[in-house]
Amino acid sequence: MYRNLFAEKPVIRELHLGGGTPTFFSADHLKVLIDSIFMHSILHPDAEFGFEAHPANTTTEHLQMLYDLGFRRLSLGIQDFDPEVQLIINRAQSFKQVKTVTNQARKIGYTSINFDLIYGLPLQTSIGLANTIQLVSELMPDRIAFYSYAHVPWIKPGQRKFTENDLPDIYAKRHLYELGRKMFTDMGYQEIGMDHFALATDSLYKAEQNGALHRIFMGYTHQYTQLLVGLGVSAINDSWYGFAQNVKSVEEYIQLVNDDRLPVFRGHSLTEEDLVIRRHILNIMCNGATSWNHHSHQSESLLQSIERLQVSADDGLIELNSWSLKVTPLGKRFLRNICMPFDARLWADKPLTQLFSMAG
């Protein structure tokens, strides 16, 4: 259906199997899936493929099959190794399982391994997180994504197993972040944009050093693109000039596809002002700086954004003048807060907006 919309055969530069669930399929089924996508596409000479995997069900057959199909990146959703935390969030996997998958992947030839860790989880403590990171240091993945936990039980029913009373307060959560950040840097990782850490040998670090870092819905990448096609339930499409999200129910998704209808249920076409704001936010998130001048699209919302930035300047998070801003070393920890003044729609809807998580 998407190919029918393209003027020519699509060129795949990057492919990512996300959700943490691909390895619930058998290795043979994954081959059918990927072969079907490649069959009607052109693979870019520099194409890169990665997938998320659950440590508890990823086998050598999975790793070998996907490697043979061209996959070289592997991401393992660990979150925390503390048994009490794993139990309450229903995420059971042992360090032994993670170590086995990591070592198998490296032996096969995977060149980039990422661990996803989360701070602010229910029942999480400083001691527990420190123990988790100490275990991670034994494996030294190429990248680490260190995400803030977002408590949204109205979206994720599984979170109703616990309440806000089980979560660290904002001060404890901040301490967990600072603890993780220090331990990662002491281990030799470089902080990349928001939430990410990478070894100096990894392509993300090299991209940041070369000014080539880019951010999409799934995180940071070293390859720039204006087109992201999301296949599957709840996936997000990005044409640069507009966003569209697929339906969130498997049954509805299958029905729409069988009816030859794109399974999209909501989206947004970006205005000229949206595109200007998007560029500033990407510049800050990826390059730690942005600028505006008389050639830029000047608007009332942009001028208001610049006024709101004064708070970040007063706090020492940015160096601000009349035509640009630069994030300070301290400010790198608060990139979301620095970007928020540019989000005109957030400010316009502020009284009505249900924020998914607290920035900072």
Overview of this structure, please?
The protein is of the alpha/beta class. It has helices at residues 2-5, 27-39, 60-68, 83-89, 95-108, 126-137, 170-186, 203-209, 250-258, 272-287, 300-308, 310-314, 335-339, 344-348; strands at 11-17, 42-53, 71-79, 112-119, 143-148, 190-192, 196-198, 214-216, 219-221, 236-238, 242-246, 264-269, 289-291, 318-320, 324-327. Strands 1-2-3-4-5-7-6 form a seven-stranded mixed sheet, with helices on both faces. Helix 3 (60-68) packs parallel to helix 5 (95-108). It starts with a helix and ends in a 12-residue tail after the last helix. Mean pLDDT is 89; it is low at 352-358.
Key terms:
360 residues, alpha/beta, Transcription Regulator spoIIAA, Arc Repressor Mutant, subunit A, seven-stranded mixed sheet, three-stranded antiparallel sheet, 22% strand, disordered C terminus
